Structure formats: C-alpha cells, structure tokens
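COMPLEX REQUEST
Ligand: zinc ion
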Amino acid sequence: MQKSALTFSDGLFIQPVLGKKKAGDFTDEAIVRSYQTLIDHYYRKDNTLLSVLEYEMEYAGPKEAIHHAIMRKNFGCTHMIIGRDHAGVGNFYSPYAAQEIFREFPDLEIQPIILNSFFFCKKCEAMANEKTCPHPRCDHVDFSGTKIRRFFTSGDGDLSGLMRPEVVREIMNTPNRFVD
Ligand SMILES: [Zn+2]
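STATUS: Structure written out below.
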C-alpha cells in the first residue's frame, strides 16, 4: 500500500503510533525495529522517512481516522493512506466506515488515499488487490494478524508472502514482541 501511494506522491512519511495498545498487538520496540529493518532493505533512502507518533490509541474507528489525518496534516503530509478498518477493534465498526467518513469532511486539507486490501497472489507472484488480480481466492495469501501472532508465539505456519524474511528475523530477535 505504501509503495502504491509512493508511486504517485513525492515522498513517503512512515509514522507508526507508539504508546499504550491492546493486548496481542506488537510492542513499540517490535514495531520500530520492524520498520527500520524493512526500510533499510526495501525502501529508497531519498524519498522515505521514518518517524514515530507517541499517542494512545483509542480504537475509535472512523472518528480516530479523522484525528490521525489532522495530526499528519500538522506534520506536513498532503495525503494519508486509510486502510480497511483503520483504528478499529474486533468487528465493532464496519470495515469501510473509516474510509467513508472522509466524505463528510472535504475541508480537512489532507486527502485520504483509499486503497483496496492487498494480499499476496501465488499466480501473480506479487502483492495484488481485487482491482489488479483476476485469480481465485485459493491463490491468495491474506494478511492475517492471527496467523502472524501464531507464528511468533508457537512457530506454527509460514509467513512467506506476508512478511519479509529480514523482518521476521528482527521480530524473532525482539524478546518482548507482544503487549501482554
Ligand atoms: Zn493473481
């Protein structure tokens, strides 16, 4: 998603939220080490900047998406990627509520970038989404937080297509990976 957005933007500002999170989320340390590793290996140095935002997530879904956008505008961003179920929790909000609410606030001075969910397609041999890939669901590897947590807690499963090997190693080397 970030690279799709970067293709038609001048630069990419990656600013993960650090601070209190819900149990089962990655810790701040795991998040920062993962992003740093990913950027070191896979992103251009001349158009990508990593920063952090210290802020306590409220899991307020669409309202919090608007808040996040205003904060990023204040950092100088012109656009912000709003994914599926941004700042959501469980099935509390409709998965597209955080994208739809931006229509009610056309004067924010920061544009949401609404992208379809991405998956890895074994036939395309690439990250793809429903607009770009013609293959059936059985060829897709969906991004799954549950699958990722299971891999890092019990070693079960396989994250190929979901996470870069360098990032997997970095998380393996982070002792406190998950919020208790
Ligand atoms: Zn495909």
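REMARKS: Residues 121, 123-124, 128, 133, 135, 139 surround zinc ion (CB under 6 Å). DSSP finds six helices and nine strands in the chain.
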